[in-house]
């Protein structure tokens, strides 16, 4: 009995460690996003050239993600996460050092590749801890990512307000986050493959199950990318609001998603993944309708808040479902991550292109249709009869978690 209690304590400690890792990962993103204007000026690139450069993180992530499973297989989950997370935190420095477009593209490619591999490794560990606990925790973990991003963006906003050099700001942030990440990684599960387990391929197409689950994630991330990048523009241009109110709409959307993710596990544990995503799809679609028909800022802002509430837990649940969908969780998670990253890359330009041809109202009509897809296809997230997290995989033993 004492051994069982000890094991549960180790798993609970690993849960908090992975949550800290998610927060570190998000803080890097928030730190970078707030200094993009400084990076643009330093590199001397136009708005169009910056748009080109900002496509490279998603390209780097999509190409590198399949490698995460092989790295974890070779070095063990804890060592792999230490290395990959450190690469990600240190890569924060690179974009601010770029003196021109081509070096900026290269820096952002490395930045994205390190982000993607660390993303896969930490989500795989999160899914394993969830399975051992027998209850949903992935929404909360992604909520910690959102909280980290908000903290990172707040620090970046202060640095920008003080007029600090982004190279100094990012160097200090990278050093601090690397140290914090290494400390957190000491208590994650040190999962290792069994002797007869084949290493995953360096590159492989996502399994069929990951494609179906990824399609659900695609709908959610498309709506997220559209709202993050275009909500302020929508209020400013379509409803002629002030710049401050337009910015507040985007901030409100982010806060809604963060709070919903932090509270989402209780809902998932009560109702299951499928019903939660279907209900979220209804809320997101209702939010989309309010955005499309809005004739006042309050109506549109309510619509964006409902959309954030509806899609908040979808991506965490997609990762959780992928991790339980087959014999190679890392490959399935990498497949889902690749699809969602692609959606995040496509969404802003697709919304802008359609708006150029028609209007932003039509663009968010498309977002509303995709939100309806969450209701229709949520069933692919069902991985058990009760739609609950499963018991630990029998071929993975809980290791000694001493640092």
Structure description:
By secondary structure, the chain is mainly α. Helix content is 78%, strand content 0%. The chain is built from 17 helices and no strands. Helix 1 (2-33) packs antiparallel against helix 8 and helix 13 (273-293) packs antiparallel against helix 17 (360-377). The longest helix has 33 residues, at 101-133. The relative contact order is 0.15. The model is unreliable at 388-403 (pLDDT under 50).
Map the helices and strands:
Layout: H1 2-33, H2 36-43, H3 47-53, H4 56-64, H5 67-75, H6 77-91, H7 94-97, H8 101-133, H9 138-161, H10 166-185, H11 208-238, H12 243-271, H13 273-293, H14 297-311, H15 314-323, H16 329-357, H17 360-377
Helix pairs in contact: 1-8, 1-9, 1-10, 3-8, 4-8, 4-16, 5-6, 5-8, 6-8, 6-10, 8-16, 9-12, 9-15, 11-12, 11-14, 11-15, 11-16, 11-17, 12-13, 12-14, 13-14, 13-17, 15-16, 16-17
Structure summary:
The chain is 78% helix and 0% strand.
Properties at a glance:
403 residues; mainly alpha; 17 helices; 78% helix; disordered C terminus
């Amino acid at each position: 009995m004492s051994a069982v209690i000890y094991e549960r304590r180790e798993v609970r400690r690993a849960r908090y460690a992975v949550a800290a890792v998610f927060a570190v990962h998000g803080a890097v993103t928030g730190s970078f996003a707030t200094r993009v204007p400084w990076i643009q000026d330093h590199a001397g690139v136009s708005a169009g050239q910056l748009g080109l450069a900002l496509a490279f993180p998603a390209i780097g992530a999509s190409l590198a993600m399949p490698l995460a499973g092989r790295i974890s297989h070779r070095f063990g989950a804890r060592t792999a996460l230490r290395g990959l997370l450190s690469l990600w935190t240190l890569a924060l420095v690179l974009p601010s050092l770029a003196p021109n477009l081509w070096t900026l593209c290269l820096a952002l490619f490395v930045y994205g590749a390190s982000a993607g591999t660390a993303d896969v490794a930490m989500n795989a560990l999160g899914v394993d801890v969830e399975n051992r606990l027998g209850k949903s925790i992935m929404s909360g973990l992604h909520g910690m990512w959102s909280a980290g991003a908000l903290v990172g963006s707040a620090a970046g906003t202060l640095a920008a307000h003080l007029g600090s050099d982004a190279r100094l700001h990012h160097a200090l942030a990278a050093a601090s986050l690397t140290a914090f990440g290494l400390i957190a990684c000491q208590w994650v599960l040190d999962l290792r493959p069994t002797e007869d387990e084949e290493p995953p391929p360096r590159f492989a197409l996502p399994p069929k199950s990951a494609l179906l689950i990824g399609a659900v994630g695609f709908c959610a991330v498309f709506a997220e990318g559209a709202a993050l990048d275009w909500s302020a523009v929508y209020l400013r241009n379509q409803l002629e609001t002030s710049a401050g109110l337009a910015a507040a709409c985007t901030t409100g959307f982010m806060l809604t998603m963060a709070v919903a993710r932090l509270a989402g596990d209780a809902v998932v544990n009560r109702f299951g993944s499928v019903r939660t995503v279907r209900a979220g799809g209804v809320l997101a679609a209702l939010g989309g309708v309010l955005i499309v028909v809005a004739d006042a800022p309050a109506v549109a802002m309510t619509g964006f808040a409902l959309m954030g509430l509806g899609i908040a837990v979808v991506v965490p649940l997609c990762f959780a479902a992928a991790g339980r969908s087959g014999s190679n969780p890392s490959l399935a998670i990498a497949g889902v991550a690749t699809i969602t990253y692609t959606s995040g890359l496509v969404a802003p330009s697709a919304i802008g292109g359609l708006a150029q041809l028609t209007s932003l109202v039509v663009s968010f009509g498309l977002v509303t249709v995709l939100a309806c897809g969450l209701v229709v296809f949520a069933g692919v997230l069902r991985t058990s009869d009760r739609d609950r997290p499963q018991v630990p995989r029998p071929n993975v033993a809980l290791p000694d978690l001493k640092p």
